[in-house]
Design goal:
The protein is mainly alpha-helical. It has 11 helices and 2 strands. Helix 6 packs antiparallel against helix 10 and helix 7 runs antiparallel to helix 9.
Length: about 260
């Protein structure tokens, strides 16, 4: 008796890409869900995360997808996995708070005054010194780039979402104008922190236009080579920006509170 062997046809290239894309989406969703739960306090430092079977019930992903998500979260300092003891949330002191995802998760939930203060303490630690050095070292081409960002900011002064992009360019340009490669690299490092502060100020009923003269003064002092003046001008800008963010956060938290179901 002869035996006929049938070989399975390999999946088409399109099917393979589609599978990988779906798998990557599940992986990203698992990272997002578990990471936000940790950062927003659903799982506390020292607490063991649910095992693979329980997690599947919670977020509906396979064991392999969950394992890859845990690796990503471990790289951000949020968790550690050990044999027999499972995956545990690490102390907050181990978290990489400048990681773009961790920053986003931290500021996507309810925000308290300490969160706002931390954001602007970071900016005050970096930007005033950068403005001083920029005033001393900026090239004409860089000053022209700063002016171009201002023109766009003025164009979109009444549109918070479109205003954010040239605002980011403005602040990152100042960091690069320092001529210090280490400080210039901070432009990318704190990008998410800058964008987060811009977004949080979008709820300010006064909009972004009142900040334009403050940005213009910073640019003017840098172009004039006035290091002390640039330092002071950007401190004034940050003071006003922090107040805008506090107002925006209060408005946002009030909306969140009104939308939560009553007990």
């Amino acid at each position: 008796m002869s035996v006929s062997v049938r070989y399975a046809r390999p999946p088409s290239a399109g099917a393979s890409v589609g599978f990988q894309s779906a798998n990557n989406s599940l992986h990203a969703a698992a990272v997002e869900q578990i990471g936000s739960w940790i950062v927003q306090g659903r799982f506390l430092p020292g607490e063991v995360l649910p095992n693979a079977d329980d997690s599947k019930d919670m977020i509906g992903v396979s064991r392999s997808v969950l394992r890859e998500a845990i690796k990503v979260l471990a790289g951000k300092g949020l968790v550690e996995s050990r044999p027999k003891t499972g995956t545990r949330v690490r102390p907050r002191s181990d978290w990489n708070f400048l990681d773009p995802d961790v920053l986003s998760w931290r500021y996507s939930g309810a925000i308290n005054p300490d969160d706002v203060r931390a954001l602007f303490e970071l900016r005050r630690a970096i930007e005033p010194m950068s403005a001083m050095l920029a005033a001393q070292r900026a090239t004409p081409e860089q000053i022209a780039e700063l002016e171009a960002a201002l023109v766009e900011m003025e164009e979109f002064g009444d549109d918070g979402d479109r205003f954010a992009e040239p605002d980011l360019v403005f602040h990152q340009t100042i960091l690069r104008m320092t001529g210090n490669e280490l400080m210039g690299s901070l432009a990318a490092l704190i990008e998410t922190a800058l964008v987060m502060s811009f977004r949080l100020s979008n709820d300010n009923p006064q909009g972004q236009r009142p900040s334009l003269p403050l940005h213009r003064e910073v640019a003017r002092k840098i172009a004039a080579g006035d290091a002390v003046g640039a330092h002071q001008a950007i401190l004034v800008l940050l003071d006003h920006a922090e107040e805008d963010v506090r107002r925006g956060v209060e408005s946002r938290n009030l909306r969140r509170g009104s939308q939560e179901p009553k007990p």
